[in-house]
Specification:
This protein has 103 residues and is mainly alpha-helical. The protein is built from 6 helices and no strands.
């Protein structure tokens, strides 16, 4: 990215917002890389610590269920797994409509 910065500076033109944001982000990440690594470690450590506590795990589960795509699939899976076990047990037990056989 430094080569692009020199090239764009030589043009003396106002760059589009997205390009300026990309150049600024690159400069920030190059200068503060150690702070970013520390931030990621702190966030991951906090998530793990929260997930290990009973109250925190319940809070994280509630947040996961509120997420648009993930929450919907988790709710469906939480309902479908027990129903699937019951239907499988009924089929193994000889419940005719599930086996395709009629007595």
């Amino acid at each position: 990215m430094p080569r692009f910065e020199v090239f764009f500076a030589s043009l003396h033109a106002k760059l589009p917002l997205v390009t300026r944001m990309l150049l600024s982000t690159t400069a920030f990440m190059g200068k503060w890389w150690y702070a970013e690594i520390a931030f990621v470690i702190i966030v991951v450590g906090g998530f793990i610590a929260t997930n290990r506590s009973p109250g925190g795990k319940a809070r994280l589960d509630a947040i996961k269920l509120k997420l648009p795509v993930i929450g919907t699939s988790r709710r469906r899976r939480s309902l479908s797994v027990p129903v699937g076990f019951c239907l499988d047990a009924a089929r193994r037990g000889g419940f005719a409509p599930l086996n395709g056989r009629y007595r």
